[in-house]
Amino acid sequence: MSDLQQAWSSVLAQLQLDMPRASFETWVLGTVALGLENDVLLVSTRNAYARDWLDSRLTSTVQRLLVGVLNRSVSVKFIVGDELQEEMETEAEETEEPELNIEPVQWLDYDRIVQPHKQVVVKGYLRRLGMEIGPKAVWLYVGFHQAAWRVQDQNGPSGKPLYSREVMRFSAMSNGAFWRLLKHAGIQAHLSGLVQRVDSQDARRFRRGRDGRPHRAPIRYQVCMTPRLTRADATAVHLHLKALIEKHNSITSALQEMLAVEDVMDLLDPLAMKLPHSPLNTVMDMAKLETGETFSPEIERLAQELHRRIINCLGDIHIPHYFITETIQRYNLTPAQAWLITVARDMAFINARTGERRDTVTFKRGYQEMAELIGSNRYKTVQAWLQPHWASQQRGGNLSRFLQEIELPDSKTYADLRVESMPRAFRVLLDEPLDADGSNKVDANGSHMADADGSISWTQMGALADANGSHMVDANGSDLNSFKHPLNTDKKNTSTTQHAQSAKAAEAVAPDFWKLELLLQQNDVHPKVQKELLEVQASVHAFVSWVLYVASLQSGNLSDPLGYAISRLREHPLREARGVFRQFADLTPKELLALIDSTPTRAYELPTKIEHPLAHDWKKAMGSNNPRLPVVREILFGEGASE
After folding, report:
1. 449: burial class by Cβ within 10 Å (0-12, 13-18, 19+)?
2. E strands along 469-578, which residues?
């Protein structure tokens, strides 16, 4: 056996010289010669994929090398090693397992879709800062802050290029609004001390690319990871600092006394005096100005501690990625509406230790306070947002989906709409507007409201309508959105008839549930591949998700849905395509067929209207028309596009 192992080591050494390093380490490294029987050398490989690769590409090369080492003709057969034997050998060498294969299981569709653990965390002090700079500047700072957090180097300051869409993704804005506001003079002034453009507006820097040609260099921005103070707070803190320096004749004693204040908010109370200069951004800048050349590390440490305490006085704001990237766009929320919802959720809380949920928030000065929180002095704008029947005065989405006014606790007064400063209480939708199954939309109180007689009220209609007012249906399923799409009296052309026809087609073609064996047989997959996938119990939902992924806009130049799906299953039998494709694959075959048939395959065709919770996501993933869908239909249902 030792001679055999020595011979195989000689073969591996020669292969290492002849092969690319990446290929050798991926497929050859780790192979073991198990034994030689009847002039057939058995070689153990890591897995079935390595076995197939070696068998198809290196069999003849290895047999030729073995002739030179053993001085006789020998055949080679690659096999997958005995897992039990390998485990015992590994156990003798080491007690810890180097790798763990963990597959997360989501019990709730809501958690799988929203992924609540993915959050943007910013300082709660942005609530005060937002009252000064406005929600548009706040969201721009949130986008830059999240992008800077991703590229920052813990060992020192460093700048790394990042694609602009990574900043835009968490700015809660469209492409046009993002660049328009970033160049706006007023917004640039508000972002001073938060996001600073290093390059001037007229500067054009170029760098040499890999092709040898000059390319435009990325525009450089500096992002302050800790926000600055508001102008009013900076003035108050600086005046307090000046007064204490004059009292103690020592800036160190002044800073120590300010740090000893029990409630740091007391330092933010405005004073009657004014500064002879414009307010500074940080306590550190104030200390440098007051000390000049005597500024020391100890003074800087105390100044940083005071600045940190002020910024942290309102805790942290946690904003789910899903809210920024999906909810805001889906419900057509303006930056001001999105920020008001964020602030209201921050004022409420969920106690992770006790499970207590406080989803009611009281604004002591009513609409006026709510308007001030978004940097506005027009309370009627907020009032109109929360009254869905004031359609002519509204902009953006329906805010009553997220904030629903309730009676004030322990109060006998009533909410008079004419009083802007009257205290008002709201129930806040703390979660995203999805039910546990990830489909039905809910109101702020967690249910759909109905009138006393059982008919659906305007609150319910707000919950059922999309943000742009389309797809509004009555309780009996009839179309109410006639002001946008007048009803056609020709029965053959109505959307209801088309939907009924597609439903009948789905019932006739689609099976009751997916079965991988039938799908593989239906598409004439090689029997050897069928047996392999069925033996490892490959996921049929993973197969469907990869087929749909190839047909989507995200797949790029992929053109073979069947071949790509099978290759991914052979690599990872249970791994599904990410994102919405998992949701599509989890649908019943009838529902999926209805979505496929609702999308035109040619540019000049009109789409079929379909009422489905995932219709919006389907159109976003597949586009307004998709010529690849007939192939998908044939793969999954055994026939081409429906007539």
Report:
1. middle
2. none
Q: Note the pTM of the prediction, 2 decimals.
A: 0.55
**CA atoms within 13 Å, Cβ hemisphere of 133:** 30
Question: Which region holds residue 107: left if phi is over 0, alpha if psi is between -120 and 50, else beta?
Answer: alpha
3-state secondary structure of 454: coil
pLDDT digits (tens, 9 = 90+) for 462-482: 333 333 333 333 333 333 332
Residue 151: φ, ψ to 5°: -105, -5
Tell me the pLDDT tens digit for each residue of 264-307.
888 998 888 888 888 999 999 999 999 887 888 999 999 999 99
Euclidean distance between CA atoms 494 and 480, whole angstroms:
14
Q: Are 479 and 487 in contact (CB under 8 A)?
A: yes
Domains along the sequence of the chain with CATH? 2-93 (3.30.300.180), 122-223 (no CATH), 231-314 (no CATH), 333-464 (no CATH), 491-637 (no CATH)
Tokens of 462: 């707000």
Task: Count CB neighbours of 387 within 10 A.
Answer: 16
**Listed residue (579, 585, 583, 590) closest to 565, CA to CA:** 585
Rounded to 5 degrees, what angle do the CA atoms 25, 29, 35 make? Answer: 160
The Cα 287–Cα 70 span in angstroms is: 81
Residue type, 511: P
